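Backbone Fold Data
Goal — fold tokens
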Amino acid sequence: MLFWHPNLTVMKKKLFFISVFLIATALAGMGFSKKESFDFSHYRTGEMELNYDVPTESEAFELGYSSPRFYLFLGKSYLGFKEALGFKESRGDYHIVNTYGYLGKYQFSRATLKMIGFSDTENFLYDTRQQEAAFYAYASFNKWILRHEIERYSGKVIGGVKVSESGILAAAHLAGPGNVRKFLRSNGTVGFADANGATVRYYMKKFSGYDTSHIEANKTPEIF
């Protein structure tokens, strides 16, 4: 007479799963072979022309490749300040020259570039690092020229606009420090507008409240 034992079914299930595991392991092992045992002889590149050269920035510009643009929310940081100003000036395009001859992302005139130490402007459009260095250098220079105005007028309302250091620096980038000084000292009655109609008042309001403490005031900023 045969007797059924409750553990017999459990043992059968364990044996089944162990067998499946061993078979799967064996099949997986068969699927991987050592590099030394694999025949690569039928993979050849001898008839192919291989070219691993990557174009430089200037070459890519000449070929008509467009630069990728990534717009991130940078808040009121210094990076946010210069990116917002660059976008307003040129939509962030390092390679643009406008109808009045202003260059690059931050729309510098050649006269301004030479004033802050850029003697060679021929390669300016092709050198993004040079453009960023020019922006910082000019902001440093303007911060030194307008240091007394920044101290005296920051937090006050002039011409309907609350004055801030970043607003002053942005307006100076647009109009030059002299025109910003006139605007502030005249209580907003003496204005300035560029050829596109942008004003000191507009820039001072649009770029108000950014953290520009990173910019050091410097009468003779060094260009790297």
User: Anything to note?
Assistant: Residues 88 and 181 are 22 Å apart (CA to CA). The longest helix spans residues 6-31.
